[in-house]
User: Which sequence fits this backbone?
């Protein structure tokens, strides 16, 4: 069994390259990268704590969607805790590695699907108690990103964890007669070939540019996408977090007190 895992891992590396960040323990002495490599391990610990503090049911009773799941470590860890997990990833190299780890660990409660995250919808994938949108939002461009966030909001019945870069208010995009501010980020040159985009495992899937919302514009978009409250996470500390990046917890209120109001006038939106 151990030799089979070693040989399959070696074959995957020869055909698809080495694992880039997700160091998953496959057996007692075999890891996808190396036993001493930390990678995203501290980040997944942060995610697990947020879920433990906010989930209204046991994790083994939850259905979780992992968007842009890369090599599958977040999905694998949540699956090991008993959750039903669907991981969606656009690149074949990543999905092959994720499926390999799932098979080594015998986790039938995890499904890895190769698909563009822009294709998500309730009709296609159903509803989820928890959605992970970690490291993917800032790789999307307008106008597609507006539909993506809207669909994500419709699919979420509990809360969504968002880990993303944000931008300055350099330009705006209009959606449903409202302005959303941010800045353009260059993912690829116009001359970049599709096969070269496929090999860029930490970049956008197809689009040459992406749009980084300002924090306030992102908050407004989440509110317009059925999220009822949004919180920034300061603890647990996200290791190596950049100055222009944060982790958010966006809630959907499906409880008894869905809305409490006061007589005072309230501000509906942030000024971009």
Assistant:
């Amino acid at each position: 069994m151990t030799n089979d895992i070693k040989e399959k891992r070696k074959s995957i590396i020869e055909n698809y390259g080495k694992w880039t960040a997700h160091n998953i323990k496959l057996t007692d002495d075999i890891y996808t990268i190396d036993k001493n490599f930390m990678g995203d391990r501290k980040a997944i610990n942060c995610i697990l704590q947020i879920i433990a503090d906010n989930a209204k049911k046991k994790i083994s009773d939850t259905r979780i969607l992992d968007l842009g799941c890369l090599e599958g470590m977040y999905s694998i860890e949540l699956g090991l805790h008993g959750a039903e997990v669907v991981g969606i990833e656009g690149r074949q190299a990543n999905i092959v590695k994720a499926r390999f780890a799932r098979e080594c660990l015998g986790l039938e409660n995890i499904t890895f699907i190769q698909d563009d995250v822009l294709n998500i919808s309730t009709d296609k994938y159903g509803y989820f108690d928890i959605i992970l949108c970690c490291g993917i939002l800032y790789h999307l461009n307008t106008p597609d990103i507006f539909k993506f966030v809207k669909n994500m909001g419709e699919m979420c019945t509990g809360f969504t964890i968002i880990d993303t870069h944000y931008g300055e208010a350099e330009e705006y995009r209009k959606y449903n007669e409202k302005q959303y501010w941010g800045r353009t980020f260059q993912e690829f040159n116009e001359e970049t070939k599709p096969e070269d985009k496929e090999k860029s495992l930490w970049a956008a899937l197809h689009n040459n540019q992406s749009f980084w919302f300002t924090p306030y514009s992102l908050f407004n978009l989440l509110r317009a996408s059925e999220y009822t409250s949004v919180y920034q996470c300061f603890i647990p500390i996200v290791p190596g977090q950049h100055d222009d990046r944060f982790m958010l917890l966006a809630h959907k209120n499906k409880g008894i007190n869905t809305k409490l109001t006061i007589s005072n006038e309230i501000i509906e939106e942030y000024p971009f």
In short: The CA atoms of residues 58 and 91 lie 31 Å apart.
